[in-house]
Specification:
Strand content of chain A: over 45%
Number of strands of chain A: 11
Distance between the termini of chain B: 37 Å
Number of helices of chain A: 0
Shape of chain B: globular
Low-confidence stretches of chain B: none
Helix content of chain A: under 10%
Mean pLDDT of chain B: 92
Low-confidence stretches of chain A: none
Structural class of chain A: mainly beta
Helix content of chain B: under 10%
Distance between the termini of chain A: 37 Å
Largest sheet of chain A: 7 strands, mixed
Order of helices and strands of chain A: EEEEEEEEEEE
Mean pLDDT of chain A: 93
Order of helices and strands of chain B: EEEEEEEEEEE
Largest sheet of chain B: 6 strands, mixed
Structural class of chain B: mainly beta
Oligomer: heterodimer
Radius of gyration of chain B: 14 Å
Number of strands of chain B: 11
Chain lengths: 115, 113
């Protein structure tokens, strides 16, 4: 069985550009969460989607947006990129989402570098 | 405590020794506490999800305890092996924002052969 897959694995963008990151959850999982991880810190929660609806949002500016598709895959969009957006972006899927007391499975992440 | 804090930040342990580290989290409106192991160049892997005060969970040589009243959890590794080298992350969720999970910065564990 395929685990959580993210694409692309690495990405270099210029300040001011826009980026779209993609995540495919484990088959049968209906919840997808996005995290930003910068070196030396733990992952920071960005969004959670469950059954195609946003169920939670972290403290990120409106430049960050996401959506979940009918097949439960998800995209994270970041507009007007800043140097500080350079980070590893992780996606996690779980069977159920609203109550985060269930095990989450992470992808390997997308390394975004903004220059 | 408003954030999730882990200590120590890093730890070097001799192979065969046992070790433990701490996760402190907000005790008010506690919902769940997660432990993850994150090896270099791999995805974070779930170890435990704990919800009940006094809960103890075990997976092989790794075990965890939970005190929700005082807001801490311990992770224990018995007889450390080189493959235990990783960053161990804990994360908590609260009833007031059950969809938002807050991670600590992790404890980086290195096992010396």
């Amino acid at each position: 069985d395929a685990g959580v897959t993210q694409s692309p694995t690495h990405l270099i963008k210029t300040r001011g550009q826009q980026v779209t990151l993609r995540c495919s959850p484990i088959s049968g999982h209906k919840s997808v969460s996005w995290y930003q991880q910068v070196l030396g810190q733990g992952p920071q929660f960005i969004f959670q989607y469950y059954e195609k609806e946003e169920r939670g949002r972290g403290n990120f500016p409106d430049r960050f947006s996401a959506r979940q598709f009918p097949n439960y895959s998800s995209e994270l969009n970041v507009n007007a990129l800043l140097l500080g957006d350079s980070a590893l972006y992780l996606c996690a899927s779980s069977l159920v989402g609203q109550s985060l007391n269930t095990e989450a499975f992470f992808g390997q992440g997308t390394r975004l570098t903004v220059v | 405590i408003l954030n999730v804090e882990q200590s120590p930040q890093s730890l070097h342990v001799q192979e065969g020794d046992s070790t433990n580290f701490t996760c402190s989290f907000p005790s008010s409106n506690f919902y769940a506490l997660h432990w993850y192991r994150w090896e270099t160049a791999k995805s974070p892997e779930a170890l435990f999800v704990m919800t009940l005060n006094g809960d103890e969970k075990k997976k092989g040589r790794i075990s965890a305890t939970l005190n929700t009243k005082e807001g801490y959890s311990y992770l224990y590794i018995k007889g450390s092996q080189p493959e235990d080298s990783a960053t161990y992350l804990c994360a908590s969720t609260r009833y007031s924002s059950a969809s938002k999970i807050i991670f600590g910065s992790g404890t980086r564990l290195s096992i010396r052969p």
